[in-house]
Amino acid sequence: MTGCNIHSFETFGLVDGPGVRFVVFVQGCPMRCQFCHNPDTWSTKENQIFSAKEVFEKAIRYKPYWKDNGGITVSGGEPLLQIDFVTELFKLCKENGVNTCLDTAGGVFSKESKFFEKFKILMQYTDLIMLDIKEINNTRHEIITGMKNDHILEMAKTMDEMGKRMWIRHVLVPERSDYDEDLIKLREFISSLKNVEKVEVLPYHTLGRHKWDNLGIEYKLEGIDPPTKERVDNANRILSGNI
Ligand code: SF4
């Protein structure tokens, strides 16, 4: 049994995959997104440890609410940092007919054999992947997340080749990830994939702002407001291919 360092649980998640979902937020993330509303998930310091079986037993009590399309989502933080746990949990889910969704930003993805072998096994038990692509422009991606995006785009292509169902999400941040030329390139990239079922634009918001202060971390988006409705509509139009 692999223990997992967990940040928190949400019993009735409505925005983390299809239907009503039990959401497991794992602790630890290698990215440093300037807009992150959960910077308290970044640290890999031990918070609370649960085995996959314990998490499954906690979640399965909510099965009556999941109906046809709900189930369990593992989010974060970055779930792939604790890939052994996610695989164990999703295996249990599939043995019990539970829908599984992985919400990842792909920051730790690698085709290096040790990780990739584990990833391929995890994919056998994963019904849907929600992958964040924070910026298609590599320079801007590094500014907004602290990391280049090559391996994240490679992950999208790899999952597509595996035939995995994907939702792509893009957080729209004025002055960071809201440029028409980048949105058009992102659309082109998405269009090159065959298994993307949905593209979601997530408007930047400041609801987690206080957490940065509490943690004593400098907030780099000071003075930047959430995007206007026009810019959100514009991003939705471009990313849906309606330009
Ligand atoms: S990948 Fe997610 S959890 Fe990690 S820093 Fe970015 S927004 Fe926060």
TrEMBL record:
Q: How is the cofactor bound?
A: Binds 1 [4Fe-4S] cluster. The cluster is coordinated with 3 cysteines and an exchangeable S-adenosyl-L-methionine.
What keywords sit in the KW lines? 4Fe-4S, Cytoplasm, Iron, Iron-sulfur, Lyase, Metal-binding, Oxidoreductase, Pyruvate, S-adenosyl-L-methionine
Reactions it catalyzes: glycyl-[formate C-acetyltransferase] + reduced [flavodoxin] + S-adenosyl-L-methionine = glycin-2-yl radical-[formate C-acetyltransferase] + semiquinone [flavodoxin] + 5'-deoxyadenosine + L-methionine + H(+)
On whether Transmembrane helix is a keyword of this UniProt record, the answer is no
Q: Which domain of life is it from?
A: Bacteria
Q: Which GO terms describe its molecular function?
A: 4 iron, 4 sulfur cluster binding; [formate-C-acetyltransferase]-activating enzyme activity; lyase activity; metal ion binding
Q: Mainly resides where? A: cytoplasm
| Cofactor(s) listed | [4Fe-4S] cluster
EC number(s) stated in the UniProt entry for this protein? 1.97.1.4
Residue ranges of the Radical SAM core domain?
15-242
- Which function does this protein serve? Activation of pyruvate formate-lyase under anaerobic conditions by generation of an organic free radical, using S-adenosylmethionine and reduced flavodoxin as cosubstrates to produce 5'-deoxy-adenosine.
Please give the family membership noted in the entry. Answer: Belongs to the organic radical-activating enzymes family.
Write the protein's name. Pyruvate formate-lyase-activating enzyme
What is this protein's gene name? pflA
